[in-house]
Each structure stands twice: as C-alpha cells, then as structure tokens.
Design brief:
Blueprint lengths: L1 E5 L5 H15 L4 H5 L7 E8 L2 E15 L2 E13 L8 H13 L5 E4 L22 E6 L8 E3 L5 H13 L7 E4 L2 H10 L5 E4 L5 E7 L2 E8 L6 H9 L3 E6 L1
Parallel strand pairs: 4-5, 11-12
Antiparallel strand pairs: 1-2, 2-3, 3-4, 3-8, 6-12, 7-9, 9-10, 10-11
Helix pairs in contact: 4-5
Length: 248
Amino acid sequence: MINYISDYKENHHLRESFNLLAKQTFGIDFETWYQYGFYDHSYVCHSFVENGRVISNVSATKMQLIIDGKDINAIQIGTVMTCPECRMSGLAGRLMHTVIEEYEPHNYMIILFPNETVMDFYPRFSFRLTNDTLYSIKTKCSGEAFDKFRKLDIKESAGRRIIEQAVKTKIPLSERMDVRANHAICLWHCLNSFQDDIYIADSGLCVVIYKMSGDRIDLYDVITPFKILIGDILPALSGGEEKCVGLG
C-alpha cells in the first residue's frame, strides 16, 4: 500500500530513505545537513511511501521574499523526484497538487527553478514560465581593499559555527529583491554547492561566497549584519585586476 506522509525529518528510517532517493536522482545529500543541526522546520518533505520506502517526493521550503520593500510569504518547491520503477504513474503530480492545496489558501507565493528536461511538467499546475536574469559588471577594482579575506573551512566545526551565525544574523542586501528567513536552505547550499568557495573578512564584518575563473568572478552572496556596498569588497576579491563580476 502506498501512503502519503510529510514532515518526517525526525524519523531516521524515512529520512534515510528520502536521502537515498535524492542521491540516486540528483546526486545530492541532506543527511549531513541534518546531522549538523541545520535542517529545521522550514524544509518540509511531502512523500509517498511504500513498504517503508520513499518512492516519490516534493519538498517545500518556506521563506520570505522581499519585493519592492514588501515581505511576501513564499515556498520554493524542489527535490521533485520519483524512483525509476514508479515514474509515469502520476505520483509526483499528486504530490504537487497536495503541496499547492496546502499553501495556496494561505497566500503563499509558490516558486520553483525546474530542470530544463522537465519544463513541460509544471505548467499543468498553473505555473508560469518567466525569464531569470544574470546581472554582471565589468570593472577594474583599483584602490585599497577595505578588508582582506581568507577561506572558511566549513568541514571544521569552528568554520560551521561562523557560517551558521553569519547566515542567521544577515540582513538583506536589497529591499527591491531579496530573501529572508531562509537560513536553513542557505546552509544546505553552503555545505553542498559552495563548501570550497566561502571566505570571511579578517575583520569579521562579512562572509562572501564567490568563485573565480580567469578574468571572471561569480559573486553568489555577501552575508553580513551590516550595510555594505558590494563595490567596497570587490578590490579584495579581484586583486586590482579587471574582472567581469557576475552577480547572482
């Protein structure tokens, strides 16, 4: 018998089964995030379980979007997956309807970033495709840097404590478009997507997440409890050379 279950992060067996399916489907891991204490109530799995095994899942991450100075409650849908032998049976679609029916009446904005291979799946749930934009600036970052940065090793407990505190106390970089109350999923990305790309200012004023390749810097986040202009930190990242800086 197939049963629906949600929000089971404290059930070791089901959490392990969910994590196995995530690894098999996307090559991603959630267990380390849980063991470090970063997995909280904001990330909710909605799953179908058969014989104690998670066979299909849709996750909802709660957050607040800031759009033109207004806070908007939102969820981001992700980790949409079904085990290979159960695909094309409508399980993921049923879970999508369940999630939408739970959050939509409470005026949550529902967003997602789909893989290109499944772009035709989501319009049937009334999702509208919009373009995302990557902004970049080409600048020669001359002058003295206001600070120096060193790599933060989040494989060590001291590094994890620093990034956790930084993420939990950060302020938005913009009132026009930003996100708040998303520290749990931000820490997941730190562990899984950017663990070798996190740097802390010697002064402790901010943490930055960026990657550099040739004459390009991809700046993913500036995490700070203070008002800081991005232009103030670029000299420290570029070494005074001309760089194309991708913002996002």
